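If it is no trouble, can you show me the amino acids of a protein and the C-alpha cells describing how it folds?
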Amino acid sequence: MTLEFPAGVVNRDETPADAARRELLEETGCAGGELVSAGRVNPNPAFMTNAVHTFVATEFECGDSQKLDANEILDVETVPVDRVVSDLGGEPFTNGIMVISLIWFLRFREKYNSGET
C-alpha cells in the first residue's frame, strides 16, 4: 500500500491539464476549479521519452463518488503536507513520481504564499 497524489496517463486526445482534471475527478470525486501547472520533468530521459506534469488545483469541490477504472482500488485520504514531507521515502510514501510532484508543489506553495503567482 502506498499513499500518493491523484495521477494517471495522458490520453491521446487530451492535454496534460485535461488529464489532471479527469484523474482528480475519477480518483477523488473532486472537481478542480483552476488548475495551475507547477512543473514538468522527464523522469529518466536516458532511455524514456515520457514526462511528469504536476498541476495544483487552487480551488476544488468534492462530490461523493469516485469513477475508478476497472483495476483501481483506492481510498481518498487527506494528509497534512508536513507529514508527507517528514515521512517521504518511508512507508507509505514510497512512490517516486510523488517525490517529483511534491517538490513542484512545495515550490508552487512558496511562490503562492509570497504573492508571486
